[in-house]
């Protein structure tokens, strides 16, 4: 019998309706409650779980007590086994982490969790890629790629995964922004890590396109194109992400998934370089920047790759920026432009227009860049 | 019995023979045909006919062919045909972009039985095959008139081969001018995917333009992609969405301004016959799929014909030989030094030329235009009906009319009840309709399906098709599992997804099947 773990972060989404841009931290939560915020998370989690309940006789469900999953599961018509202990009405991020660890230890096939970017980060800290997970979007901030589009579609994907109709998994980004800074008008997002999610049709297209295998082939093809175009004596600044990782892997070089690496003549020069290291390296040299689309909103700069600062970008020059992405990733933006948020308005302006995105070997797509 | 006159739905159930693979029917020594021994006179002239085969061409072991009597072979294929749905048995409106129009049976009869077709050989002296050469020549004249371009070749034997040949002509043209730097082709996301694939196979880099809100790409994106590296643009119009880009001449002009050539993919020209031509839009090359617009049957990867047309300037690059007429007789012209050469042995697929010639003669110029108009009218009628079905959305160009096809989306159905285009497609066959075409990959329109009710289908056919779509939407809302687990009335109930689409899991030959099943 297949096992499903259910975790609900009951306070996710509290800050949204009252304009608080998130609900991480007890003080903010208190303010949200004072402003009249009601929990959104439980009802949205129930919406997803109702879809899963069509499998109620064929799967085992494990969850955490009270509002962290028990209430929601029962309301959706599931009969869960409840584990763990919490102080109801005073749940914490540690509860989420503990729940994820205990469910991973129970060898569940999938953890379905309800929350936002903060919740995804807690799960990522707790279990990394030990277990396949999927997010029900209930939080204020959803920059991470681990969430389904709607609660219903989360339920649908979870059900299909448990039925064995979806088998493959993929790494999806966990992003988080600094809420305190955001409340002060500054948006800084960090690429926090990667969780393993079911291969979801909506993002990776219909199963017929070959799914994960086709995506892996696309990544190889993109990497081959970038490598074939590499000039001797040029520094290549390789941004974070799984798409850029394919280049490092193809060259057999050590990669920093969440950081910036530098290559010269197909040899590694620096791993996880900082802005000042980058500036030192490329000063007076020919250099190119290779970046991919980060996060669900389609950022090229300003999310998770702040090391590639306005100074670095200006030094390298606009014409030396190589953007790589799979066609599926571009299509998932639904026609919205790629975004640049370098922190330098003038530079953002200069970077807008159409850019040639490498989508395969000798295969490119013209795509709009905005800010 | 029969179709319910109110709901237009049928209580359908298909034959379920679970017929064996033909190799499994083999009985050693059994024969369908006993080949007669040659008469004495012939034996005296050529001997036994076998001993002249050089030793190094002879098989050491007989070929592993199935050995079966005639009657069982016939039964085998009749059973397979009963387990299949297609244009001759049900309204095949769902194969958008494929133009599944009726191919009059008289064409089939001519191509399969006329001695001038079945008793000739391409190596015969051209004086003895004047009939088929005349048909080639005259069909070329028709296509010239339909497109406005100056020369045609009927040699390429598929739409993709036509585009490959056109990409080769583009390269030959630039090379003849000493311009060897041009290594890029531009196409669009909603053009037929082979507009990217065939030039890539011909060695070009491919740049694809994404659609804007109106459904076709921004001219600015095109201009940014164009450069002295651009060899040509390969574009479909109307694209697979059914949206016609009425400003296409501006795209052509922008490409010409940088010295690139423009190739018009008219594989499906069904909405344009007698209305708009490649020439007036400024194109240098085009191609027609004879097996779509010109009725020679389309499907099953069977014999096809991609007729390629070019301007006067590009005529010398067309494949050899060209069929010509000197006022008295038709002949083959091989003396063409700048030609890209042959792309196919002999004349390509001759029966298709005959069928297209017959179809054009049956219709006349006015009839072709009427076919285009009816195909657009049919589509507009059907679009209105399909849009009313809960769960259907249509992306791009809100409020604008489309030509002969529409790419629809079940996105809303998926969001509302978790039933997607794969599910609906599998359910259609329970009502006796062949499956529809979703879209090529990647799916830009989510949960897509593409319909094209070309001029052949009656209002009743369209109404039945729409009734089935409406019924499936209703079922999806009331009992989604019924649709998800479809088909229920087809020869095969459990379709293993996604394995069925995985080339590594497919047994495409008997040899591979045996290996996968561990059969000795």
UniProtKB/TrEMBL annotation, chain A:
Gene3D superfamilies per the UniProt record, alphabetical: Probable inorganic polyphosphate/atp-NAD kinase, domain 1
This protein's UniProt keywords: Kinase, Transferase
InterPro entries per UniProt: AcoX-like, ATP-NAD_kinase_N, NAD/diacylglycerol_kinase_sf, NADK, Put_ATP-NAD_kin
Keyword Zinc-finger carried by entry: no
Range of residues in the leader sequence: none
One Gene Ontology biological process: NADP+ biosynthetic process
Annotated transmembrane regions: none
Gene Ontology molecular function: ATP binding; NAD binding; NAD+ kinase activity
Entry keyword annotation includes Transferase: yes
Domain of life: Bacteria
Stored PANTHER family: ACETOIN CATABOLISM PROTEIN X, ATP-NAD KINASE-RELATED
Protein name (record): ATP-NAD kinase
TrEMBL record, chain B:
CC per GO annotation: cytosol; glycine cleavage complex
Xref: Gene3D superfamilies: 6.20.440.10, Aspartate Aminotransferase, domain 1, Type I PLP-dependent aspartate aminotransferase-like (Major domain)
Keywords: Oxidoreductase, Pyridoxal phosphate
Protein name, UniProt field: glycine dehydrogenase (aminomethyl-transferring)
Function: The glycine cleavage system catalyzes the degradation of glycine. The P protein binds the alpha-amino group of glycine through its pyridoxal phosphate cofactor; CO(2) is released and the remaining methylamine moiety is then transferred to the lipoamide cofactor of the H protein.
Keyword Oxidoreductase assigned: yes
Listed PANTHER family: GLYCINE DEHYDROGENASE (DECARBOXYLATING), MITOCHONDRIAL, GLYCINE DEHYDROGENASE, DECARBOXYLATING
Cited Pfam families: Aminotran_5, GcvP2_C
Keyword Oxidoreductase in annotation: yes
InterPro entries, alphabetized: Aminotrans_V_dom (IPR000192), GDC-P_C (IPR049316), GDC_P (IPR020581), PyrdxlP-dep_Trfase (IPR015424), PyrdxlP-dep_Trfase_major (IPR015421), PyrdxlP-dep_Trfase_small (IPR015422)
Domain Aminotransferase class V, first and last residues per copy: 172-299
Species: Candidatus Abyssobacteria bacterium SURF_17
Catalysed reactions listed for this entry: N(6)-[(R)-lipoyl]-L-lysyl-[glycine-cleavage complex H protein] + glycine + H(+) = N(6)-[(R)-S(8)-aminomethyldihydrolipoyl]-L-lysyl-[glycine-cleavage complex H protein] + CO2
Biological processes annotated in GO: glycine decarboxylation via glycine cleavage system
Molecular function terms, GO-annotated: glycine binding; glycine dehydrogenase (decarboxylating) activity; pyridoxal phosphate binding
């Amino acid at each position: 019998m297949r096992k499903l773990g259910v975790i609900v972060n009951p306070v996710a989404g509290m800050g949204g309706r009252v304009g608080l841009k998130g609900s991480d931290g007890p003080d903010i939560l208190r303010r949200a409650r004072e402003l009249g915020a009601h929990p959104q998370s439980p009802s949205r989690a129930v919406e997803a779980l109702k879809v899963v309940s069509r499998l109620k006789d064929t799967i085992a469900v494990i969850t955490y007590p009270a509002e962290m999953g028990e209430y929601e599961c029962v309301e959706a018509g599931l009969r869960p086994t409840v584990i763990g202990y919490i102080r109801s009405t005073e749940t914490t991020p540690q509860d989420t982490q503990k729940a994820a660890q205990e469910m991973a230890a129970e060898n569940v096939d999938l953890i379905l969790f309800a929350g936002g970017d903060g919740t995804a980060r807690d799960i990522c800290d707790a279990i990394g890629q030990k277990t396949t997970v999927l997010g029900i979007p209930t939080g204020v901030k959803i920059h991470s790629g681990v969430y389904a589009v709607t609660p219903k579609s989360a339920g649908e994907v979870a059900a299909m995964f448990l039925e064995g109709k979806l088998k493959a998994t993929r790494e999806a980004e966990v992003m988080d922004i600094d809420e305190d800074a955001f409340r002060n008008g500054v948006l800084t997002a960090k690429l926090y890590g990667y969780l393993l999610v079911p291969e979801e049709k909506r993002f990776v297209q219909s199963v017929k396109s070959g799914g994960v295998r086709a995506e892996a082939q696309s990544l190889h093809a993109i990497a081959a194109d970038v490598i074939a175009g590499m000039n001797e004596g040029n520094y290549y600044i390789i941004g974070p992400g799984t798409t850029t990782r394919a280049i490092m892997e193809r060259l057999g070089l050590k990669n920093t998934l969440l950081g910036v690496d530098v290559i010269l003549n197909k040899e590694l020069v620096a791993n996880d370089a900082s802005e000042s290291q980058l500036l030192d390296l490329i000063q007076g040299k020919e250099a190119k920047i290779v970046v991919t689309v980060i996060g669900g909103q389609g950022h090229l700069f300003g999310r998770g790759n702040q090391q590639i600062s306005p100074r670095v970008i200006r030094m390298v020059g606009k014409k030396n920026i190589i953007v790589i992405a799979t066609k599926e990733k571009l299509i998932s933006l639904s026609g919205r432009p790629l975004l640049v948020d370098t922190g330098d308005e003038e530079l953002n302006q200069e970077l807008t227009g159409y850019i040639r995105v490498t989508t395969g070997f000798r295969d490119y797509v013209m795509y709009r860049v905005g800010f | 019995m029969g179709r319910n006159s109110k709901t237009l739905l049928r209580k359908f159930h298909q034959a379920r023979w679970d017929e064996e693979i033909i190799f499994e029917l083999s009985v050693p020594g059994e024969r369908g045909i006993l080949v007669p021994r040659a008469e004495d006179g012939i034996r005296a002239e050529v001997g036994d006919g076998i001993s002249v085969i050089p030793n190094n061409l002879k098989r050491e072991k007989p070929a592993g062919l199935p050995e079966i009597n005639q009657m069982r072979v016939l039964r085998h294929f009749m059973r397979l045909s009963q387990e299949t749905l297609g244009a001759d048995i049900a309204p095949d409106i769902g194969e958008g972009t494929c133009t599944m129009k009726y191919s009059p049976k008289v064409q089939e009869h001519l191509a399969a039985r006329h001695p001038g077709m079945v008793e000739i050989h391409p190596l015969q002296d051209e004086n003895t095959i004047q009939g088929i050469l005349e048909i080639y020549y005259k069909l070329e004249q028709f296509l010239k008139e339909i497109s406005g371009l100056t020369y045609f070749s009927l040699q390429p034997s598929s739409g993709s081969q036509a585009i490959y040949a056109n990409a080769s002509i583009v390269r030959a043209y630039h090379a003849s001018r000493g311009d060897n730097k041009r290594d890029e082709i531009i196409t669009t996301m909603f053009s037929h995917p082979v507009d990217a694939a065939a030039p890539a196979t011909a060695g070009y880099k491919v740049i694809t333009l994404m659609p804007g809100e109106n459904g076709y790409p921004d001219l600015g994106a095109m201009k940014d992609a164009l450069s002295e590296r651009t060899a040509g643009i390969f574009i479909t119009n109307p694209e697979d969405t059914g949206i016609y880009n009425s400003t296409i001449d501006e795209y052509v002009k922008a490409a010409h301004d940088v010295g690139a050539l423009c190739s018009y993919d008219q594989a499906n020209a069904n909405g344009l016959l007698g209305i708009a031509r490649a020439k007036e839009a400024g194109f240098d090359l085009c191609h027609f799929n004879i097996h779509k617009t010109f009725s020679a049957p389309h499907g099953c990867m069977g014999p096809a014909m991609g007729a390629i047309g070019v301007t006067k300037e590009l005529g010398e690059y067309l494949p050899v030989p060209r069929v010509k007429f000197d006022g008295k007789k038709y002949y083959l012209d091989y003396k063409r030094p700048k030609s890209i050469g042959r792309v196919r042995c002999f004349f390509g697929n001759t029966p298709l030329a005959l069928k297209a010639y017959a179809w054009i003669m049956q219709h006349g110029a006015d009839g072709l235009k009427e076919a285009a108009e009816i195909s657009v009218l049919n589509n507009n009628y059907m679009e209105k009906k399909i849009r009313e079905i809960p769960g259907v959305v249509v992306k791009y160009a809100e409020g604008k009319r489309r030509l002969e096809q529409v790419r629809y989306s079940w996105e809303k159905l998926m969001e509302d009840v978790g039933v997607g285009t794969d599910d609906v497609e599998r359910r259609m066959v329970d009502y006796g309709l062949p499956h529809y075409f979703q879209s090529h990959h990647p799916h830009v329109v989510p949960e897509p399906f593409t319909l094209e009710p070309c001029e052949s289908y009656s209002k009743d056919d369209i109404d039945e098709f729409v009734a089935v779509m409406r019924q499936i939407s209703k079922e999806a809302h009331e009992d989604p599992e019924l649709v998800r687990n479809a088909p229920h009335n087809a020869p095969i109930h459990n379709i293993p997804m996604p394995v069925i689409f995985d080339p590594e899991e497919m047994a495409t030959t008997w040899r591979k099947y045996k290996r996968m099943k561990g059969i000795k």
